[in-house]
Amino acid sequence: MLEHVNETIRWIPLLPLMGALVSGLWLIFARQELPRPLVIGLGCGAPMLSFALSVREVFRLATAFPAGERFFIDNLYTWISAGDFHAELSFLLDPLSAVMILVVTGVGSLIHIYSVGYMREDHRDDRGFQRFFCYLNLFTFAMLVLVLGDNLLVLFVGWEGVGLCSYLLIGFWYLDDHNAMCGQKAFIVNRIGDFGFLLGIFLLFWAFFEAGHPTIEFYAMREHVGLVAERTVTLPAWLGFLPGFPTWTLLTLAGLCLFVGACGKSAQLPLYVWLPDAMAGPTPVSALIHAATMVTAGVYMVCRLSFVYSLAPGASATIAWVGGLTAIFAATIAICQKDIKKILAYSTVSQLGYMFLAAGVGSYSAAMFHLMTHAFFKALLFLGAGAVIFGMQHEQNIEKMGGLRRYMPWTHWTFLIGVLAISGAPPLSGFFSKDEILLGVYAAHAMPGHMALWWIGLVTAGLTAFYMFRLYFLTFSGASRAPMQLQTRIREQPVVILMPLFLLAGLAIVGGLVGLPDAYGEALFSLPSSNSLHYFLDESVVSATHVVPPAREFALAGLAVLIAAGGAFFAVFLYYYRTDLVPRVTAALRPLYQLVWRKYYVDELYSLAVVRPLVRISDAFLYRTIDVRMIDRLGVDGTAGFVRGVADRGLKLVQTGLMQSYVFVMLLGSVLLIAYLVGGL
Amino acid sequence: MIPQIDIGALGPMLPVAVGAILLPLAEVLMARKRTFLSRPFTQERRGTFLAVASLLCLVIALIISVNGLLGPSRVFNSGNPMIVMDGVAHFLNIVVLLGASLTVLGSVKYLADIHSNHGEYYALLMSSVLGMMFLTSASNLMMLFLALELMSIPLYVLAGFRRSSLRSNESALKYFLIGSFASGILLYGMAILYGMTGSISLAEIGKRFDPESAPHLLGAALVVVGLGFKISSVPFHQWAPDVYEGAPTSVTGFMATTVKVAAFGALMRVLAVALEPAAELLYGALWVMAVLSMTLGNVMAIIQQNIKRMLAYSSIAHVGYLLVGVIVGTLDGYAAVLFYLLVYTFMTIGAFTVVAILAKGGEDRDRVEDLAGLSQSRPLMAVVMTLCMFALAGIPPTAGFMGKFHLFRAAIERGIEIGDTSLFWLAIIGVLNSAISLAYYLRVPLVMYFRDAPPTSDPDVPGFFERVVLLTCLAAVVLLGIVPDDIFNVLSQTAASAQHLLLLQSP
């Protein structure tokens, strides 16, 4: 009988940490880089070892335990214990975190390898190569802590850790002011989310504390969540416009607060604005952090706390609607963008919206499934885009590309696979995961307006196919629009860059088979429960159950494919056959085009409504009035002035620098002490 | 009856004593050599050699101490014990040795920079460390006084180690004169205690002490004054800013940390064992001292422009926090003091090391404004300084937060247990004071990160040893904030074993 306690788990996050520490400390002490092969061996070796370990442990997890009892726990130590409350530093490997660590270490390792090729000629900063791998390893560590943490506190530590690494890596080329500003934008927007996230943690803990179970451990909370389900809070009168006023369940409130955090981290409306700017970082960073792993932390968190959300229908509906609206909103922006990485960034925002849509309607395993397949194909697309940018000498505008198929055939084929996968072409991975989401939305009868959400999902699928094929044709087909001297220098990338592309392309093709829907399994291979991922994950999440007859399921899938094909066909028509039509179409739709091209003026709106007033209030009121006039002048300077005044007159008599007076004060103190002790003063 | 002597109990002191004796010899022998390994044997290389040698002694002592902490308590002489090597002694010795090691590492380059690279520095340091180690383990009054003087006298010399600097000379002279005065008071108190109880053994005094009798209390009061001077608690604190400011920065870091560690060890032992019968009265007096130390220390720190003076007042405030744990008087309280002393050593030495590195070419640049733009020019130093400031202010998740948390928690728990509101108030005043302290602690990162460096500023690059110190302090400040809670239970047991032993040992 295998023990549930497994002390190997800790090494999965610790290996990358050791990699980061060794290279970081070396940089600090030696003030120069290690030899390149050593940097590469250390930087890539750590996540690869971690991946090997993850595969082994997940395999043991899946095979050694019967369904329903699959978890490993590794308790490092008790961090804080105060009365009945204990915060352990411990890691939990259950099906949910198993999927996450495989994605993080697997896709992460490939991206580390790719970075060797991508960063090799970067000379913007001496020691940059090793610094890059140091940060990348540190990120991998933080992300693994996030997904392996077995309580909210450890999760939060990882949550902040990945935020920090994201900031460091977005501003990696910090000598350029723009990059540093983008890093700060990401950090600040995330702080807004984290504020909500912390409030959510406190609320949840408070609820469990009052119910007599002061715990923040996921499994313990899940066990006792029934005790707090009925707990309500009364809203203040000025919130009277909210639905369900004046009493909400505490779980709804906590769930919403936590979701605010998820909105920040996973770039959902209205906090998505940092992600497109985060593309200022090196492309492997965009692939790893801002597509495959970190931005999915919000989705993971919602799935991890599915037991809360399943009891908080209001919060779930909010998640579904925010997710759905983000999906279609970002997809429309992606249509008009010209920067290859920005298009992929908006596409990421849109796909994350899909995941939240699924989580909101209770199809948590579908959300995780899409998270996984998205990690495959979006990492593939980003890395492909990186190869293109590299080949084009750091040109990112797709209007200046074109015809790259001839110059970079391998990159082109892998990119096409990524485009097909994200568009939902059967039988690639994206088809199955997107289908499961749409099916979940369709069948979620308990959710108000679930049919509207379903239509939103369908339209988004069409839009996705359209903008991805637009991107593909503008980049790879037709004649090259690059300057002549650049054209002669475009080359296919070396193996170290292509190899991760091939592997990811393979995953993007077959990755969907682990979640092959039962209806397909039954029809094709007569396997009644072929959706192994769903059954595996169902132990960790509290999924809503829905039953749709197979015939209806096939029909829905057919409809989705048709719509996607329609989008793709439209792109083929506009950007392949009749490229001459494009300017005419945009001219005809001028106002609409402008609106979308300027990203609905959201950044401008935020600047006008939030940033500038905030700066003005901060500067004129908070700084000049409150800080300078009141706190500084009255408070600090006042106190200091008072103290100084007293010091001038009184204390200076005492703190004179003259020893006689020091001795006098000491004597006085002694006399007082003696008087107190002996005389009972 | 011939008392049984256990020389092995002195194991941890041995390497330090050997170092203190042999280092001046080595200095003399080296002065003759012109070359070493066919390279010129410069003054600087001699200094490095001596530093490494003293580090070796300290590390050996450290290893023996750690072993001792894990093993059973030992007593130097049976019957009327003079030296008791129990858990508390070992733990405090470890803290002292760590502080001393960091000081040695931080001194190498600093001494060369201020042209005071004289070999006797390390010998003096080692003598002082030896005194501290005896002080933490002394269990009778004579031993206590000897250890105290052994600790203090080298420090008087070290404070004036920059012979050419007037400030340094002034600092040494002040420290010496006021120190002698305090020693006199302490000795007088000890004499009275001995006269009244007829014993110099702490345990024996504890048995015979009569809290009703005025002479007994007079002796107790004078002993508290003497030790209050060593920990620089208000109102016996006034020498500290002057002395800290004038002394060479590496010595200041040493004085601000290890001396307090050892003196707190002695204070806890005296209060818990010898003066235990008068505990209630004494705690009332200490309560006032704690509140005054915290408040005055923090308020005065706000108006300081010189970092060393600021840190001096901050250290006075920290004495106030530490006294909270002493006043609580439970095992949890003592354990909290032990933990806080460890944390305090790292965060203070980290801060002083940064200041020492900034002191370039002998010209101390130790105003807060001199840190401007450090985040740009020396990011590592800026990060260490920031974290040390956060830790001193008690911001989670640094070690400083954990330390204060345990101190105040112990106070509140004890307050609930015995229904004493004054302990609550102590905790509340402590927390309020932590808030006040933010005003000056946060000014340091503010200046480092948001002010541009003056064009002439070119801070020194930290040398290898200094980088080791900086990173050690950084790691300790972070790691001690997230260490397992168990360490606290272990410390609590350590305190328990010590108390147990001391009470048993009285004949």
Short recap of the structure:
The complex is a heterodimer of chains A (681) and B (507). Chain A is mainly α and 681 residues long. Chain A has helices at residues 11-30, 36-64, 95-119, 128-148, 152-170, 177-210, 218-228, 250-265, 274-277, 283-292, 297-304, 306-309, 313-336, 340-360, 364-391, 404-407, 409-423, 429-443, 450-476, 484-487, 495-510, 518-525, 532-537, 550-577, 581-588, 590-597, 602-654, 659-679; strands at 72-82, 85-93, 232-234, 247-249.
Characterization of the model:
The complex is a heterodimer of chains A (681) and B (507). Chain A has helices spanning 11-30, 36-64, 95-119, 128-148, 152-170, 177-210, 218-228, 250-265, 274-277, 283-292, 297-304, 306-309, 313-336, 340-360, 364-391, 404-407, 409-423, 429-443, 450-476, 484-487, 495-510, 518-525, 532-537, 550-577, 581-588, 590-597, 602-654, 659-679, and strands spanning 72-82, 85-93, 232-234, 247-249. Chain A has 681 residues and is mainly α. In chain A, helix 15 (364-391) runs antiparallel to helix 17 (409-423). The radius of gyration of chain A is 28 Å and the shape is globular. The termini of chain A are far apart. Chain B has 507 residues and is mostly helical. Chain B has one domain. In chain B, 76% of the residues lie in helices and 2% in strands. Chain B has helices spanning 13-32, 43-70, 87-113, 120-137, 141-159, 166-197, 202-208, 214-230, 239-246, 249-274, 279-302, 307-328, 331-358, 374-377, 379-393, 399-418, 421-441, 443-450, 464-482, 486-505, and strands spanning 35-36, 39-40, 74-75, 84-85. In chain B, the strands form two sheets. Chain B has a two-stranded antiparallel ribbon. Chain B has a two-stranded antiparallel ribbon with strand order 3-4. The model of chain B has no long low-confidence stretch (mean pLDDT 87).
The low-pLDDT segments of chain B are none
End-to-end Cα distance of chain B: 13 Å
> Proportion of β residues of chain A?
under 5%
Name the helicity range of chain B: over 70%
| Radius of gyration of chain A, whole Å | 28 Å
How many structural domains are formed by the residues of chain B? 1
Characterize the biggest β-sheet of chain A.
2 strands, antiparallel
Assign the structural class of chain B, choosing from mainly alpha, mainly beta, alpha/beta, alpha+beta, or little secondary structure.
Answer: mainly alpha
Give the strand order of the largest sheet of chain A, numbering strands 1, 2, ... along the chain. Answer: 1-2
The backbone outline of chain B, from C-alpha atoms, is globular
- Poorly predicted regions of chain A: none
